[in-house]
Amino acid sequence: MIRLCDSRDDQAIFDIINDASQAYRGVIPEDRYHEPYMSEDELAQEIEDGVVFWGYEEDGRLVGVMGNQNKGDVALIRHAYVKSSHRQGGIGTKLLHHLMSLEDRPVLIGTWAAAVWAISFYEKNGFRRVSSAEKETLLRQYWNVPDRQIETSVVLCDGRWAENKNGL
């Protein structure tokens, strides 16, 4: 079952993100990986900055989370994680499709360039990578990330972005 998360879910969101992010260890640049991957304070800041988390629940427990963030003319998919014990079961796809059904504007996703599994997942779900120049512009416009993360990331867009980018 997919449901909107609230403050009672903060610990579960924190646990899922930090469990699933273990996949980044040794893959993303060493200077960008740390333990925990996202601290409780960082999670609280993301929520304060408008990231709304949705969760996938099995047997009364969250096993996957995905956030969306309203950025006016676009929506961002943020922090998409499935517990490592529940991967490859379609949970990420269900969450992504649910969040996409809530949007009527272009959707952008940023992820690590080295996270080929994540890029492949989004591409299988209809997203495409934007050019390197457009990536840098978008990351500076819609995200608040350091230059090093901009260097080592990609941005993917949905079909609405491709159709509307000239009008944004």
From TrEMBL:
Q: Which Gene3D superfamilies match?
A: 3.40.630.30
Please name one Pfam family that this protein belongs to.
Acetyltransf_10
> Which UniProt key words apply to this protein?
Acyltransferase, Transferase
Highest taxon of the lineage: Bacteria
User: What are the TM regions of this chain, as residue ranges?
Assistant: none
This chain's source organism reads Paenibacillus chibensis
SUPFAM superfamilies, per database record: Acyl-CoA N-acyltransferases (Nat)
**By what name is this protein known?**
GNAT family N-acetyltransferase
Q: Does the keyword Transferase apply?
A: yes
Question: Which PROSITE patterns would you find in this protein's record?
Answer: GNAT (PS51186)
- Provide the N-acetyltransferase domain boundaries: 1-148
